[in-house]
Protein backbone atom coordinates (compact mmCIF):
# COMPACT_ATOMS: atom_id res chain seq x y z
CA UNK A 1 0.00 0.00 0.00
CA UNK A 2 2.33 2.75 -1.21
CA UNK A 3 6.09 2.78 -1.72
CA UNK A 4 8.38 2.69 1.25
CA UNK A 5 10.69 5.64 1.60
CA UNK A 6 13.76 6.21 3.72
CA UNK A 7 14.52 9.23 5.85
CA UNK A 8 14.07 10.76 9.24
CA UNK A 9 11.56 12.76 11.19
CA UNK A 10 12.78 15.80 13.15
CA UNK A 11 15.54 15.20 15.68
CA UNK A 12 13.19 16.20 18.51
CA UNK A 13 10.29 14.08 17.18
CA UNK A 14 8.07 12.81 19.99
CA UNK A 15 7.73 9.02 19.97
CA UNK A 16 5.18 7.62 22.30
CA UNK A 17 2.18 5.51 23.12
CA UNK A 18 -1.18 6.72 24.38
CA UNK A 19 -3.80 5.60 26.90
CA UNK A 20 -6.69 7.06 28.90
CA UNK A 21 -7.50 6.91 32.62
CA UNK A 22 -10.78 5.01 32.58
CA UNK A 23 -9.44 2.53 30.06
CA UNK A 24 -6.39 1.49 32.13
CA UNK A 25 -6.41 2.62 35.76
CA UNK A 26 -9.00 0.49 37.50
CA UNK A 27 -9.26 1.18 41.26
CA UNK A 28 -12.58 2.77 40.40
CA UNK A 29 -13.63 3.23 44.04
CA UNK A 30 -10.27 3.13 45.82
CA UNK A 31 -8.57 5.68 48.06
CA UNK A 32 -11.23 8.37 47.89
CA UNK A 33 -11.84 8.44 44.15
CA UNK A 34 -15.25 9.84 43.17
CA UNK A 35 -17.48 8.25 40.54
CA UNK A 36 -17.38 9.22 36.91
CA UNK A 37 -20.02 8.93 34.21
CA UNK A 38 -18.11 5.94 32.84
CA UNK A 39 -18.35 4.13 36.19
CA UNK A 40 -22.08 4.70 36.07
CA UNK A 41 -22.48 3.86 32.42
CA UNK A 42 -20.37 0.68 32.40
CA UNK A 43 -22.29 -0.57 35.44
CA UNK A 44 -25.52 -0.23 33.50
CA UNK A 45 -26.90 -3.55 32.33
CA UNK A 46 -26.53 -4.02 28.60
CA UNK A 47 -24.35 -0.96 28.00
CA UNK A 48 -21.11 -2.80 27.21
CA UNK A 49 -20.84 -5.48 24.52
CA UNK A 50 -19.34 -8.16 26.77
CA UNK A 51 -20.94 -6.97 30.02
CA UNK A 52 -17.58 -5.85 31.43
CA UNK A 53 -16.42 -2.53 32.90
CA UNK A 54 -13.27 -0.63 33.86
CA UNK A 55 -13.43 -1.42 37.60
CA UNK A 56 -10.03 -3.09 37.49
CA UNK A 57 -9.03 -3.21 33.81
CA UNK A 58 -5.18 -3.06 33.56
CA UNK A 59 -4.95 -2.05 37.22
CA UNK A 60 -2.48 0.67 36.37
CA UNK A 61 -3.31 2.40 39.64
CA UNK A 62 -1.33 -0.38 41.32
CA UNK A 63 0.90 -1.45 38.45
CA UNK A 64 2.10 1.87 37.06
CA UNK A 65 5.76 0.98 37.58
CA UNK A 66 5.34 -1.86 35.09
CA UNK A 67 3.80 0.52 32.58
CA UNK A 68 6.81 2.80 32.90
CA UNK A 69 9.14 -0.14 32.34
CA UNK A 70 7.23 -1.09 29.22
CA UNK A 71 7.51 2.44 27.86
CA UNK A 72 11.21 2.46 28.60
CA UNK A 73 11.63 -0.84 26.83
CA UNK A 74 9.78 0.56 23.82
CA UNK A 75 12.27 3.46 23.78
CA UNK A 76 9.41 5.94 23.93
CA UNK A 77 10.46 9.55 24.44
CA UNK A 78 6.91 10.55 25.47
CA UNK A 79 3.79 9.02 26.97
CA UNK A 80 0.26 10.35 26.53
CA UNK A 81 -2.16 9.48 29.32
CA UNK A 82 -5.15 11.18 30.89
CA UNK A 83 -5.99 12.28 34.41
CA UNK A 84 -9.10 11.06 36.14
CA UNK A 85 -10.96 14.22 37.19
CA UNK A 86 -12.98 12.30 39.79
CA UNK A 87 -9.83 10.73 41.28
CA UNK A 88 -8.29 14.16 41.76
CA UNK A 89 -11.43 16.11 42.69
CA UNK A 90 -14.07 13.64 43.93
CA UNK A 91 -16.64 16.39 44.44
CA UNK A 92 -15.32 18.48 41.53
CA UNK A 93 -14.36 21.09 44.10
CA UNK A 94 -10.70 22.13 43.90
CA UNK A 95 -10.64 23.19 47.53
CA UNK A 96 -11.28 19.54 48.48
CA UNK A 97 -8.80 17.49 46.45
CA UNK A 98 -8.17 13.79 47.02
CA UNK A 99 -4.62 13.63 48.36
CA UNK A 100 -4.20 9.97 47.31
CA UNK A 101 -5.13 10.85 43.73
CA UNK A 102 -2.68 13.73 43.62
CA UNK A 103 0.03 11.49 45.09
CA UNK A 104 -0.66 8.81 42.48
CA UNK A 105 -0.15 11.13 39.54
CA UNK A 106 2.87 12.75 41.19
CA UNK A 107 4.53 9.35 41.57
CA UNK A 108 3.61 8.45 38.04
CA UNK A 109 4.90 11.68 36.46
CA UNK A 110 8.10 11.55 38.51
CA UNK A 111 8.59 7.93 37.51
CA UNK A 112 8.26 8.79 33.84
CA UNK A 113 10.69 11.69 34.08
CA UNK A 114 13.20 9.61 36.02
CA UNK A 115 13.21 7.33 32.99
CA UNK A 116 13.55 10.21 30.59
CA UNK A 117 9.99 9.89 29.29
CA UNK A 118 8.09 13.14 28.96
CA UNK A 119 4.41 13.24 29.91
CA UNK A 120 1.74 14.43 27.51
CA UNK A 121 -1.33 14.84 29.69
CA UNK A 122 -4.94 14.80 28.53
CA UNK A 123 -7.11 16.58 31.08
CA UNK A 124 -10.33 15.02 29.87
CA UNK A 125 -10.69 11.70 28.11
CA UNK A 126 -14.44 11.24 28.61
CA UNK A 127 -14.73 10.41 32.34
CA UNK A 128 -16.71 13.37 33.67
CA UNK A 129 -17.33 13.28 37.44
CA UNK A 130 -20.82 11.92 38.06
CA UNK A 131 -21.49 14.83 40.43
CA UNK A 132 -20.93 17.26 37.53
CA UNK A 133 -23.23 15.16 35.36
CA UNK A 134 -25.88 15.28 38.08
CA UNK A 135 -25.91 19.06 37.74
CA UNK A 136 -26.41 18.93 33.99
CA UNK A 137 -22.90 17.96 32.89
CA UNK A 138 -21.91 19.11 29.42
CA UNK A 139 -25.49 20.23 28.83
CA UNK A 140 -25.16 22.97 31.43
CA UNK A 141 -23.19 26.22 31.06
CA UNK A 142 -21.84 25.63 34.57
CA UNK A 143 -19.56 22.91 33.27
CA UNK A 144 -17.32 25.55 31.69
CA UNK A 145 -16.34 27.03 35.07
CA UNK A 146 -16.01 23.56 36.59
CA UNK A 147 -13.72 22.42 33.80
CA UNK A 148 -11.58 25.51 34.17
CA UNK A 149 -11.35 25.00 37.91
CA UNK A 150 -10.22 21.41 37.38
CA UNK A 151 -7.66 22.42 34.73
CA UNK A 152 -6.34 25.18 36.99
CA UNK A 153 -5.87 22.63 39.73
CA UNK A 154 -3.96 20.28 37.39
CA UNK A 155 -1.66 23.04 36.09
CA UNK A 156 -0.92 24.13 39.65
CA UNK A 157 -0.12 20.57 40.79
CA UNK A 158 1.63 19.08 37.77
CA UNK A 159 2.53 21.91 35.42
CA UNK A 160 6.01 22.29 36.85
CA UNK A 161 6.78 18.93 35.19
CA UNK A 162 4.13 18.51 32.49
CA UNK A 163 4.92 20.60 29.41
CA UNK A 164 2.44 19.14 26.96
CA UNK A 165 -1.28 19.35 27.65
CA UNK A 166 -4.40 18.26 25.80
CA UNK A 167 -7.63 19.77 27.12
CA UNK A 168 -10.28 17.46 25.64
CA UNK A 169 -9.98 14.22 23.70
CA UNK A 170 -12.16 13.90 20.60
CA UNK A 171 -15.11 16.16 21.38
CA UNK A 172 -16.77 14.93 18.21
CA UNK A 173 -16.94 11.35 19.50
CA UNK A 174 -18.19 12.56 22.88
CA UNK A 175 -20.94 14.57 21.26
CA UNK A 176 -21.96 11.92 18.77
CA UNK A 177 -21.65 8.80 20.90
CA UNK A 178 -22.42 10.22 24.35
CA UNK A 179 -25.24 12.58 23.41
CA UNK A 180 -26.33 11.66 19.89
CA UNK A 181 -26.45 7.89 19.63
CA UNK A 182 -26.25 7.33 23.39
CA UNK A 183 -23.76 4.45 23.11
CA UNK A 184 -21.09 6.05 25.30
CA UNK A 185 -21.50 7.67 28.72
CA UNK A 186 -23.66 9.46 29.72
CA UNK A 187 -25.84 7.49 27.30
CA UNK A 188 -28.08 10.31 26.15
CA UNK A 189 -29.84 9.74 22.85
CA UNK A 190 -30.64 13.19 21.51
CA UNK A 191 -28.92 13.61 18.16
CA UNK A 192 -31.02 16.59 17.14
CA UNK A 193 -30.21 18.84 20.08
CA UNK A 194 -28.02 17.68 22.98
CA UNK A 195 -25.41 16.51 20.52
CA UNK A 196 -24.95 20.08 19.25
CA UNK A 197 -25.43 21.87 22.56
CA UNK A 198 -22.57 20.02 24.22
CA UNK A 199 -20.24 20.79 21.33
CA UNK A 200 -20.55 24.43 22.34
CA UNK A 201 -19.81 23.90 26.05
CA UNK A 202 -16.84 21.74 25.08
CA UNK A 203 -15.46 24.42 22.77
CA UNK A 204 -15.93 27.07 25.48
CA UNK A 205 -14.34 24.86 28.15
CA UNK A 206 -11.35 24.27 25.92
CA UNK A 207 -11.00 27.94 24.98
CA UNK A 208 -11.29 29.31 28.52
CA UNK A 209 -8.78 26.74 29.73
CA UNK A 210 -6.32 27.59 26.97
CA UNK A 211 -6.57 31.29 27.81
CA UNK A 212 -6.28 30.67 31.54
CA UNK A 213 -3.10 28.64 30.95
CA UNK A 214 -1.73 31.43 28.79
CA UNK A 215 -2.39 34.20 31.29
CA UNK A 216 -1.72 32.39 34.54
CA UNK A 217 0.84 29.65 33.85
CA UNK A 218 2.57 29.98 30.52
CA UNK A 219 5.28 32.43 31.55
CA UNK A 220 6.37 30.25 34.42
CA UNK A 221 5.66 26.74 33.15
CA UNK A 222 6.40 27.28 29.50
CA UNK A 223 4.37 24.36 28.16
CA UNK A 224 2.23 23.74 25.10
CA UNK A 225 -1.51 23.21 25.22
CA UNK A 226 -4.15 22.29 22.66
CA UNK A 227 -7.03 19.94 21.90
CA UNK A 228 -7.10 16.53 20.22
CA UNK A 229 -9.54 16.01 17.34
CA UNK A 230 -10.23 12.76 15.59
CA UNK A 231 -10.88 12.41 11.95
CA UNK A 232 -11.24 9.77 9.31
CA UNK A 233 -9.98 10.70 5.90
CA UNK A 234 -12.84 10.75 3.40
CA UNK A 235 -12.76 10.68 -0.41
CA UNK A 236 -15.46 10.94 -3.05
CA UNK A 237 -16.47 7.52 -4.36
CA UNK A 238 -16.23 8.97 -7.85
CA UNK A 239 -13.94 12.00 -7.88
CA UNK A 240 -15.47 13.23 -11.14
CA UNK A 241 -18.94 13.36 -9.60
CA UNK A 242 -19.49 16.77 -7.93
CA UNK A 243 -22.14 15.32 -5.57
CA UNK A 244 -19.64 12.79 -4.28
CA UNK A 245 -17.00 15.48 -3.88
CA UNK A 246 -19.45 17.58 -1.91
CA UNK A 247 -20.47 14.64 0.28
CA UNK A 248 -16.85 13.82 1.13
CA UNK A 249 -16.14 17.43 2.02
CA UNK A 250 -19.28 17.63 4.13
CA UNK A 251 -18.28 14.54 6.08
CA UNK A 252 -14.90 16.08 6.93
CA UNK A 253 -16.52 19.43 7.75
CA UNK A 254 -19.09 17.89 10.08
CA UNK A 255 -16.60 15.70 11.94
CA UNK A 256 -13.17 17.39 11.92
CA UNK A 257 -14.31 20.87 10.89
CA UNK A 258 -17.02 21.01 13.58
CA UNK A 259 -14.25 21.71 16.12
CA UNK A 260 -11.25 22.49 13.94
CA UNK A 261 -12.79 25.47 12.13
CA UNK A 262 -13.71 27.29 15.37
CA UNK A 263 -10.33 26.70 17.02
CA UNK A 264 -7.86 26.62 14.14
CA UNK A 265 -9.59 28.87 11.64
CA UNK A 266 -12.18 31.54 12.28
CA UNK A 267 -13.96 30.89 15.56
CA UNK A 268 -17.03 29.39 13.89
CA UNK A 269 -18.36 26.09 12.54
CA UNK A 270 -17.88 25.36 8.83
CA UNK A 271 -20.37 27.18 6.59
CA UNK A 272 -21.52 23.92 5.03
CA UNK A 273 -22.49 22.59 8.44
CA UNK A 274 -24.20 25.79 9.60
CA UNK A 275 -26.16 26.15 6.38
CA UNK A 276 -27.23 22.53 6.20
CA UNK A 277 -28.38 22.24 9.82
CA UNK A 278 -30.26 25.54 9.56
CA UNK A 279 -32.03 24.23 6.46
CA UNK A 280 -32.89 20.95 8.20
CA UNK A 281 -34.13 22.83 11.27
CA UNK A 282 -36.34 25.08 9.13
CA UNK A 283 -37.75 22.07 7.35
CA UNK A 284 -38.83 20.84 10.79
CA UNK A 285 -40.68 24.09 11.35
CA UNK A 286 -38.09 25.52 13.73
CA UNK A 287 -37.15 29.18 13.59
CA UNK A 288 -33.55 28.77 14.69
CA UNK A 289 -30.87 26.26 13.85
CA UNK A 290 -30.47 23.32 16.19
CA UNK A 291 -26.73 24.05 16.00
CA UNK A 292 -26.27 26.79 18.61
CA UNK A 293 -25.05 30.03 17.12
CA UNK A 294 -21.73 31.24 18.50
CA UNK A 295 -21.71 34.95 19.40
CA UNK A 296 -18.96 37.26 18.13
CA UNK A 297 -17.52 37.29 21.62
CA UNK A 298 -17.49 33.48 21.78
CA UNK A 299 -15.90 33.24 18.35
CA UNK A 300 -13.12 35.59 19.41
CA UNK A 301 -12.64 33.61 22.57
CA UNK A 302 -12.36 30.27 20.74
CA UNK A 303 -10.35 31.32 17.72
CA UNK A 304 -6.63 30.62 17.95
CA UNK A 305 -6.67 28.63 21.18
CA UNK A 306 -3.99 26.14 20.20
CA UNK A 307 -0.24 25.60 20.32
CA UNK A 308 -0.36 22.54 18.07
CA UNK A 309 -2.92 20.40 16.24
CA UNK A 310 -3.56 17.12 18.10
CA UNK A 311 -4.82 14.53 15.63
CA UNK A 312 -6.29 11.10 16.27
CA UNK A 313 -6.59 9.14 13.07
CA UNK A 314 -7.47 5.53 12.34
CA UNK A 315 -9.24 4.95 9.06
CA UNK A 316 -10.68 6.18 5.75
CA UNK A 317 -14.10 6.24 4.10
CA UNK A 318 -15.60 6.80 0.66
CA UNK A 319 -18.56 9.14 0.31
CA UNK A 320 -21.61 9.66 -1.84
CA UNK A 321 -24.55 12.00 -1.50
CA UNK A 322 -27.31 10.40 0.53
CA UNK A 323 -30.25 9.10 -1.45
CA UNK A 324 -32.00 7.05 1.17
CA UNK A 325 -32.62 8.34 4.72
CA UNK A 326 -31.88 4.95 6.26
CA UNK A 327 -28.30 5.36 5.15
CA UNK A 328 -27.94 8.47 7.33
CA UNK A 329 -24.81 8.48 9.44
CA UNK A 330 -25.97 7.71 12.93
CA UNK A 331 -23.85 10.31 14.72
CA UNK A 332 -25.46 13.06 12.67
CA UNK A 333 -29.04 12.75 11.56
CA UNK A 334 -28.20 15.90 9.64
CA UNK A 335 -25.43 14.29 7.66
CA UNK A 336 -26.10 14.36 3.92
CA UNK A 337 -23.13 12.10 3.22
CA UNK A 338 -23.34 8.35 2.88
CA UNK A 339 -19.94 6.94 3.85
CA UNK A 340 -18.56 3.44 3.63
CA UNK A 341 -15.28 1.58 3.09
CA UNK A 342 -13.97 0.42 -0.26
CA UNK A 343 -14.49 -3.36 -0.34
CA UNK A 344 -10.89 -3.84 -1.41
CA UNK A 345 -9.49 -2.32 1.78
CA UNK A 346 -8.04 -4.65 4.41
CA UNK A 347 -10.10 -4.81 7.57
CA UNK A 348 -8.63 -4.77 11.08
CA UNK A 349 -10.29 -6.10 14.25
CA UNK A 350 -13.79 -4.74 14.15
CA UNK A 351 -16.31 -3.35 11.72
CA UNK A 352 -15.10 0.21 11.62
CA UNK A 353 -11.36 0.03 11.08
CA UNK A 354 -9.97 -0.38 7.57
CA UNK A 355 -6.27 -0.14 6.90
CA UNK A 356 -5.67 2.73 4.49
CA UNK A 357 -2.25 4.23 5.22
CA UNK A 358 -2.40 6.69 2.30
CA UNK A 359 -5.41 8.32 3.99
CA UNK A 360 -3.13 9.55 6.78
CA UNK A 361 -0.82 11.39 4.38
CA UNK A 362 -3.79 12.99 2.63
CA UNK A 363 -5.39 14.02 5.91
CA UNK A 364 -2.14 15.53 7.19
CA UNK A 365 -1.86 17.56 3.99
CA UNK A 366 -5.50 18.61 4.24
CA UNK A 367 -5.05 19.87 7.82
CA UNK A 368 -1.86 21.65 6.95
CA UNK A 369 -3.49 23.40 3.99
CA UNK A 370 -6.86 24.15 5.61
CA UNK A 371 -5.64 25.36 8.99
CA UNK A 372 -2.57 27.42 8.16
CA UNK A 373 0.23 24.88 8.52
CA UNK A 374 -0.01 24.20 12.27
CA UNK A 375 2.48 21.96 14.07
CA UNK A 376 0.75 18.60 14.10
CA UNK A 377 1.10 15.88 16.71
CA UNK A 378 -0.50 12.54 15.92
CA UNK A 379 -1.89 11.91 19.40
CA UNK A 380 -3.43 8.54 18.42
CA UNK A 381 -3.09 6.07 15.59
CA UNK A 382 -3.37 2.33 15.91
CA UNK A 383 -5.00 -0.88 14.93
CA UNK A 384 -7.27 -3.34 16.69
CA UNK A 385 -7.51 -7.06 16.48
CA UNK A 386 -10.38 -9.28 17.38
CA UNK A 387 -9.62 -12.54 19.06
CA UNK A 388 -8.35 -15.14 16.60
CA UNK A 389 -9.40 -13.28 13.50
CA UNK A 390 -5.90 -12.61 12.28
CA UNK A 391 -3.98 -15.38 13.94
CA UNK A 392 -6.13 -18.40 14.72
CA UNK A 393 -4.59 -20.42 17.50
CA UNK A 394 -2.52 -17.54 18.79
CA UNK A 395 -4.96 -16.60 21.52
CA UNK A 396 -2.86 -13.77 22.87
CA UNK A 397 -2.16 -12.65 19.31
CA UNK A 398 1.47 -12.13 20.13
CA UNK A 399 2.41 -12.60 16.48
CA UNK A 400 0.37 -9.59 15.40
CA UNK A 401 1.64 -9.28 11.84
CA UNK A 402 -1.26 -7.08 10.84
CA UNK A 403 -0.51 -4.50 13.54
CA UNK A 404 3.18 -4.53 12.56
CA UNK A 405 2.16 -3.78 8.99
CA UNK A 406 -0.26 -1.11 10.12
CA UNK A 407 2.36 0.75 12.16
CA UNK A 408 5.04 0.52 9.49
CA UNK A 409 2.81 1.59 6.63
CA UNK A 410 1.04 4.46 8.44
CA UNK A 411 4.35 5.82 9.69
CA UNK A 412 5.76 5.52 6.19
CA UNK A 413 2.95 7.74 4.90
CA UNK A 414 3.47 10.15 7.79
CA UNK A 415 7.14 10.34 6.83
CA UNK A 416 6.17 11.16 3.25
CA UNK A 417 3.94 13.95 4.53
CA UNK A 418 6.88 15.32 6.49
CA UNK A 419 9.69 14.84 3.96
CA UNK A 420 7.97 15.18 0.60
CA UNK A 421 5.03 17.46 1.40
CA UNK A 422 6.53 19.65 4.13
CA UNK A 423 3.83 18.99 6.72
CA UNK A 424 5.01 20.22 10.12
CA UNK A 425 4.76 16.93 11.98
CA UNK A 426 6.12 16.88 15.52
CA UNK A 427 5.21 13.57 17.05
CA UNK A 428 3.45 10.22 16.89
CA UNK A 429 1.66 8.44 19.72
CA UNK A 430 0.57 4.91 19.06
CA UNK A 431 -2.80 3.81 20.39
CA UNK A 432 -2.17 1.99 22.64
CA UNK A 433 0.49 0.84 25.09
CA UNK A 434 -1.46 -2.23 26.21
CA UNK A 435 -4.83 -3.90 25.73
CA UNK A 436 -7.43 -2.05 27.75
CA UNK A 437 -11.13 -1.36 28.23
CA UNK A 438 -12.30 -0.38 24.76
CA UNK A 439 -15.40 1.58 25.79
CA UNK A 440 -18.64 0.08 24.42
CA UNK A 441 -16.68 -2.87 23.00
CA UNK A 442 -15.39 -3.82 26.46
CA UNK A 443 -12.48 -6.25 26.08
CA UNK A 444 -13.60 -7.66 22.73
CA UNK A 445 -11.37 -5.31 20.79
CA UNK A 446 -7.63 -5.11 21.50
CA UNK A 447 -5.27 -2.34 20.44
CA UNK A 448 -2.22 -3.01 22.61
CA UNK A 449 1.46 -3.28 21.81
CA UNK A 450 1.31 -5.40 24.95
CA UNK A 451 -1.20 -8.16 25.54
CA UNK A 452 -2.88 -7.96 28.94
CA UNK A 453 -4.29 -11.06 30.59
CA UNK A 454 -7.56 -9.89 32.13
CA UNK A 455 -8.24 -13.34 33.61
CA UNK A 456 -5.09 -13.12 35.66
CA UNK A 457 -5.30 -11.10 38.91
CA UNK A 458 -1.73 -9.92 38.24
CA UNK A 459 -2.88 -8.47 34.90
CA UNK A 460 0.28 -9.81 33.31
CA UNK A 461 1.48 -7.78 30.35
CA UNK A 462 3.27 -9.54 27.48
CA UNK A 463 4.87 -7.72 24.55
CA UNK A 464 3.53 -8.48 21.11
CA UNK A 465 5.69 -8.57 18.04
CA UNK A 466 4.44 -5.07 17.20
CA UNK A 467 6.16 -3.70 20.30
CA UNK A 468 9.51 -4.71 18.81
CA UNK A 469 8.51 -3.35 15.41
CA UNK A 470 7.62 0.00 16.91
CA UNK A 471 10.85 0.14 18.90
CA UNK A 472 12.85 -0.63 15.80
CA UNK A 473 11.22 2.27 13.96
CA UNK A 474 11.81 4.60 16.92
C1 LIG B 1 -10.21 6.75 20.03
O1 LIG B 1 -11.44 7.01 19.44
C2 LIG B 1 -10.30 7.01 21.52
O2 LIG B 1 -9.70 8.26 21.83
C3 LIG B 1 -9.70 5.94 22.35
O3 LIG B 1 -10.04 6.13 23.69
C4 LIG B 1 -10.14 4.60 21.82
O4 LIG B 1 -9.76 3.55 22.63
C5 LIG B 1 -9.53 4.46 20.44
O5 LIG B 1 -9.87 5.50 19.61
C6 LIG B 1 -9.92 3.17 19.72
O6 LIG B 1 -11.27 3.16 19.42
O7 LIG B 1 -17.74 0.09 16.80
O8 LIG B 1 -18.69 1.07 14.83
O9 LIG B 1 -19.43 1.77 17.00
C7 LIG B 1 -11.44 6.91 18.03
C8 LIG B 1 -12.86 7.02 17.55
C9 LIG B 1 -14.88 6.04 18.28
C10 LIG B 1 -13.52 4.97 16.64
C11 LIG B 1 -15.62 4.73 18.51
C12 LIG B 1 -14.27 3.69 16.86
C13 LIG B 1 -16.39 2.72 17.43
C14 LIG B 1 -17.12 2.51 16.14
N1 LIG B 1 -13.54 5.78 17.82
N2 LIG B 1 -15.61 3.95 17.28
S1 LIG B 1 -18.32 1.26 16.21
TrEMBL record:
GO molecular function, one term: hydrolase activity, hydrolyzing O-glycosyl compounds
Residues spanning the signal sequence: none
GO-annotated biological processes: carbohydrate metabolic process
Superkingdom: Eukaryota
Entry keyword Hydrolase: yes
Segments traversing the membrane: none
Keywords: Glycoprotein, Glycosidase, Hydrolase
InterPro entries reported in the protein's UniProt record: GH (IPR017853), GH_1_N_CS (IPR033132), Glyco_hydro_1 (IPR001360)
Pfam families: Glyco_hydro_1 (PF00232)
Stated family: Belongs to the glycosyl hydrolase 1 family.
Known partners and oligomeric status: Homodimer.
Name of the protein in its database record: Beta-glucosidase
Amino acid sequence: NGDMIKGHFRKDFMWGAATASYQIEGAWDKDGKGQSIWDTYAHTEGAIEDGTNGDITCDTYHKYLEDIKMLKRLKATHYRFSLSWSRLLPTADSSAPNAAGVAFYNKFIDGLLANNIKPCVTLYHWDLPQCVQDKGGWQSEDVVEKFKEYADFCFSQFGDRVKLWVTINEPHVQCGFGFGMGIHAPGIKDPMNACYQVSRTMLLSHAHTYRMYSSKYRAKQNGLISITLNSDWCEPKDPSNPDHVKAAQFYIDATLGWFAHPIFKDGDYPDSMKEHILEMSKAQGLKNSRLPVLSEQEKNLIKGTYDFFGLNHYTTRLAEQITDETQAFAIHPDMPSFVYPDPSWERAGKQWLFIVPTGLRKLLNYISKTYGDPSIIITENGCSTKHSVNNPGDTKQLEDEQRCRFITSYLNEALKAHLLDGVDLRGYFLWTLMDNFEWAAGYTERFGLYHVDFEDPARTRTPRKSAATFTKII
